[in-house]
Amino acid sequence: MVKIFDTNKISSCDKSVPYDKDKRTHPRRCVAFSRFKLCFCLSLICLLFVLIGIIILIAIVFSSHRSQKETESTITITVTTSAMTTTTTSFVLKSNWIINGDGEIGPCESGNNITNPTGWFSNGTITQVYYNNTFADQYFTDPGPDDRGQCYFYGQKPFSTTSMWQYVNITDSIDPSLIDNQTISYNFSAWIGGYASQADYAQVSLTFLDQNNQKIGSTIILGPVSNVQRSNLTSLLYRQIHGLVPNGSRSCLVLVTITRVYGPTADGDIDNISLNFS
Ligand SMILES: *[C@@H]1O[C@H](CO)[C@@H](O)[C@H](O)[C@H]1NC(C)=O
Ligand SMILES: *[C@@H]1O[C@H](CO)[C@@H](O)[C@H](O)[C@H]1NC(C)=O
Ligand SMILES: *[C@@H]1O[C@H](CO)[C@@H](O)[C@H](O)[C@H]1NC(C)=O
Ligand SMILES: *[C@@H]1O[C@H](CO)[C@@H](O)[C@H](O)[C@H]1NC(C)=O
Ligand SMILES: *[C@@H]1O[C@H](CO)[C@@H](O)[C@H](O)[C@H]1NC(C)=O
Ligand SMILES: *[C@@H]1O[C@H](CO)[C@@H](O)[C@H](O)[C@H]1NC(C)=O
Ligand SMILES: *[C@@H]1O[C@H](CO)[C@@H](O)[C@H](O)[C@H]1NC(C)=O
Ligand SMILES: *[C@@H]1O[C@H](CO)[C@@H](O)[C@H](O)[C@H]1NC(C)=O
Ligand SMILES: *[C@@H]1O[C@H](CO)[C@@H](O)[C@H](O)[C@H]1NC(C)=O
Q: Per the record's keyword annotation, is Transmembrane helix included, yes or no (predicted)?
């Protein structure tokens, strides 16, 4: 390649260029070049064509490789996404069976609108909202979980109450016979509160259901946390309960209810709702 494009050497064989006697290799080359001049020039032209051909070939191969790579990266992204989903699911199953119990999945409201929480069924205005949103209640600096993420759940402006709920299928990864011989216990917790001295409130309940989706035993309720319990401070307080999963349970219903008592908005708040089994 270098030799082909070394114009110095080629031009040094040009008769118009004066012979340099210090460069002793040149005369020999020039003799050889003159002898096979025509042949050499023809091969040079051939080489040039071959070279152009190679360049075009490389370009084609490269572009097809590129598009293949693009396809590959698309596939990789898809695989990664499903892998992430799987990871998230198994993580949720391990440490928290509730999907988006912490309000960190999906969009959060940064204004005065309604943004229903992701991963929950909802009725009414219940909103997944950013901390420090001045239209809502809780600031990062208010008492609450140390590690609270970016968002929490807020009532917004319901007629009277607003709610969200989800079903958890316990037998997804727990053998029903372990439930039925009373070996499995649950641990249910949440951070619950409200705004200043307002009596608006939030609560979350857990109801076990049998294989026919019939209620078993009594509903377990965390909260409400009253303004008196909060010492009239805007805050979230930790509430937790644990016990045995009742015989016959196959799934359960987790239901959050936020109730308006004072003013136009339901200033009941809740975050980090967690349910796990051991
Ligand atoms: C409020 O939400 C509604 C429906 O989700 C949407 O159409 C509207 O643009 C939102 N308004 C603002 C100011 O974000
Ligand atoms: C939704 O809430 C309203 C009251 O705010 C209630 O009448 C209605 O039954 C609720 N619907 C569901 C599906 O929970
Ligand atoms: C949230 O608001 C508080 C009180 O105004 C402020 O001290 C804090 O820096 C804010 N945090 C963020 C992340 O904006
Ligand atoms: C609350 O949720 C956040 C966001 O997912 C998480 O990082 C944190 O560990 C949770 N805190 C508690 C006290 O459960
Ligand atoms: C719960 O999960 C089990 C095991 O995957 C499945 O057989 C059952 O149909 C699920 N039930 C519901 C209500 O999704
Ligand atoms: C409950 O059932 C499981 C599975 O059938 C069994 O391994 C376990 O020993 C049982 N525990 C009790 C306390 O009966
Ligand atoms: C669980 O329920 C089944 C069916 O009703 C019953 O046979 C079994 O004895 C119960 N087990 C316990 C530990 O209550
Ligand atoms: C329940 O979970 C909390 C953390 O969410 C933990 O501090 C507590 O020890 C657990 N209780 C039981 C009985 O497992
Ligand atoms: C809390 O606020 C209520 C009004 O909502 C008031 O009656 C009560 O005295 C206040 N309590 C304290 C300790 O400030």
A: yes
